[in-house]
Every structure is written in C-alpha cells, then in structure tokens.
C-alpha cells in the first residue's frame, strides 16, 4: 500500500518573531512607551527575579525582588531630592504584591522614621516610630495607628505605658511624670485619663518636683474604687 506524505504547513513568520520578543531570563534595559526603564530578570514576559525599575515621571527607583510583574520580596525604594537631585531612601524592607508587607524601615520627608512590621502597605504589628519632636512610640500598630499595648517616650523623658486605640491612649495605663517625680496609674479614654491614682515617685530625684508632696489617700478602699472604674470601662467596650 503506497504511503502518502503530506507537506507540513509552514509556520507563520510572526510566530518566530513573537517567541523572540517574549522577555525571559536576564535582559538589558527595557524601555516603556512612557519612558520608564527596567533592567533585570523576566519570566513569561513579566518582571520576575532581581531587577531595577526607574520611573521617568517621578524619578523614583526601586531595586530588589519581583514576582509576576510586581514588587515582591526584599527591596529598597528611593526618590530624588527636589533641590539636590540626590537619591534619598524612602523604604527598605519586604514587599508583597507591590505593597509594603513584613519587616521594613520607612524614612519620611519630615525626618521621622518607622521601623517595624507592615501589612498591605500600612504599619501593622509591632513597630517603633521616631517622631519629629523627639517622641518615640514603640508597641503595637493596626492600620497605620498605635493600637494595642505600647510605650510613648516624650522629649522630656516622661512616658506613658499602656493601652492604645486608633492612635490614642485608651484603657489601663501608667503615665510617669519623671520631671515632677509622680506616677498616674489609671484608665484612659481617647487620650483623656478618666480615673486613677497619683503618687509621688522618686520625688527627691526629680528635676522639677511639685512644691508639696501628694497627701496620703484617705479613701477607705482606693483599690475598690479603681476596680469599679475598671469594670465600668470593660462594660463600655463590650
């Protein structure tokens, strides 16, 4: 029985060109139509691996890990100073799906600095914030605000230790007035102390103590009064 051979259909030339145009592995600088530049690794025509991106409009630059076209892994993001044109680091740390996620350090234009955990681009978890006025907060964060347990140290060395909610002192806490040698222990609601006990603390060592010491508490049951206030606060949170 005779064998019939059919000629193979010729592959369109554009198929070969398309394969060559697909970006895969390490490539030289690729320029976008808007002037952006990327130098680094690719996978399936997407930025993937190590690479550096330069945005023409803002002049910002990112150098680090990529995954499926997005910043993912460890990398640093910098922007040019408007006056000197020198690059200033804005963020160095971990990313996930183009957003800050994990542990990283943020440098703000005002001179403030945050070092700690992030989630979906927001400060969330445990972190330390150094403010412009010299104050330092270290503790828990939720959605970019202090929330949970934390310590705020003020420039005059006074400090607050206790609960926070939506960026304000909230719940049981202690405020150390080290400049006066006093301690306020009580309950705060949206930054305002609602009830508590004030006592002298290392009064003789304080730089500016009050003229007279705090008199002895004459309440029959001061601990019971504070416990009752605590119970009222707990009920209001439920």
TrEMBL record:
Protein name: MORN repeat-containing protein 3
Superkingdom of origin organism: Eukaryota
Lineage, broadest ranks: Eukaryota, Metazoa, Chordata, Craniata, Vertebrata
UniProt subcellular location: Cytoplasmic vesicle, Secretory vesicle, Acrosome
An example Gene Ontology CC term for this record: acrosomal vesicle
Function: Assembles a suppression complex (suppresome) by tethering SIRT1 and MDM2 to regulate composite modifications of p53/TP53. Confers both deacetylation-mediated functional inactivation, by SIRT1, and ubiquitination-dependent degradation, by MDM2, of p53/TP53, promoting a proliferative and cell survival behaviors. May play a role in the regulation of spermatogenesis.
Main location: cytoplasm
SMART domains: MORN (SM00698)
Keywords linked to the UniProt accession: Cytoplasmic vesicle, Repeat
SUPFAM superfamilies: Histone H3 K4-specific methyltransferase SET7/9 N-terminal domain
Transmembrane portions of the chain: none
Organism: Odontophorus gujanensis (marbled wood quail)
